[in-house]
C-alpha cells in the first residue's frame, strides 16, 4: 500500500505524521521541540514545493510513505485516488522569524496527540481494507 499524508504546506503536520508512521517519532508521548525541528522537511519547504509528492520512506509493513502540500486546492483531494492509482500501477516558510517558529513548535506539540491518532487510524484502516486505493479524510477525531 502507498500512504500519502497531506496538509496545506506539506511541511508541518504531514511531516510529523509521516515521521510518526515511520517510527521516527514516538507514538507514546508528545515529542520535544528539538525532535520536531530535526524531523525531515519540517518547516523546510516553500511555496514552490506545494503539489510535490515527497518520498519519506518504507514502513515496517513494506509500504511506501509520502507527503504532499496541497494548498487550498479544491481539486487535489478528489484527485488523490487517481494519483495513488498511478503510483500503485507503476508564503515562503523559511522566512518565519524566531517567534513564529516558537509558536509553530507550541502548536505542533498541542496537535501532536491528534496527529498520532490520525496515523494510528490510517494504519489500522489499511490493515482491514481490501481496496487497492483508499483515501481517508482524517477529520478531527472525538
From TrEMBL:
InterPro entries given in the database record: DUF3189
Domain of life of the source: Bacteria
Pfam families found in the cross-reference section: DUF3189
Protein name, UniProt field: DUF3189 family protein
Organism, scientific name: Desulforamulus reducens (strain ATCC BAA-1160 / DSM 100696 / MI-1)
Amino acid at each position: 500500500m502507498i500512504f500519502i499524508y497531506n496538509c496545506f504546506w506539506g511541511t508541518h503536520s504531514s511531516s510529523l505524521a509521516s515521521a510518526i508512521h515511520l517510527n521516527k517519532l514516538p507514538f507514546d508521548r508528545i515529542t520535544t521541540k528539538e525532535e520536531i525541528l530535526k524531523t525531515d522537511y519540517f518547516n523546510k519547504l516553500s511555496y514552490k514545493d506545494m503539489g510535490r509528492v515527497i518520498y519519506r520512506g518504507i514502513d515496517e509493513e513494506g509500504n511506501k510513505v509520502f507527503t504532499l502540500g496541497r494548498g487550498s486546492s479544491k481539486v487535489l483531494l478528489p484527485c488523490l485516488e487517481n494519483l495513488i492509482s498511478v503510483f500503485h500501477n507503476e508564503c515562503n516558510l523559511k522566512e518565519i522569524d524566531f517567534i513564529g517558529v516558537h509558536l509553530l513548535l507550541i502548536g505542533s506539540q498541542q496537535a501532536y496527540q491528534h496527529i498520532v491518532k490520525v496515523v494510528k487510524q490510517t494504519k489500522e484502516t489499511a490493515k482491514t481494507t481490501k481496496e487497492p486505493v483508499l483515501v481517508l479524510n482524517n477529520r478531527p477525531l472525538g
